[in-house]
Design a protein that fits this description.
Length: 101
Amino acid sequence: MILVDANVLCEATRPHPSALVLNWLTCHESELVVTPIVLGEIAYGIRTLPAGRKRTRLQEWFEAGVESLHVLPIDSETGRHWAELLAKLKRSDERCRSRTA
């Protein structure tokens, strides 16, 4: 099993993806695992894009790819902790925006 993060999985969607990363993903495809949080990060990033061709293409890529991934289980405490971290990040971003406005 190889636990991968969102940036590695999303490499294939970049305009000029790294051939090394794409080759590595292909070679290790059957060994790759993700957490539900990684899937959430990717889905969140896609959903925050403006409506259009890019968002549609990425949604299709995500839906097709998510079915083939092995997703590790996560306990409720980890999920709650992740949510709290995300909320703090959002509040921090809002404070930064109000300072620069």
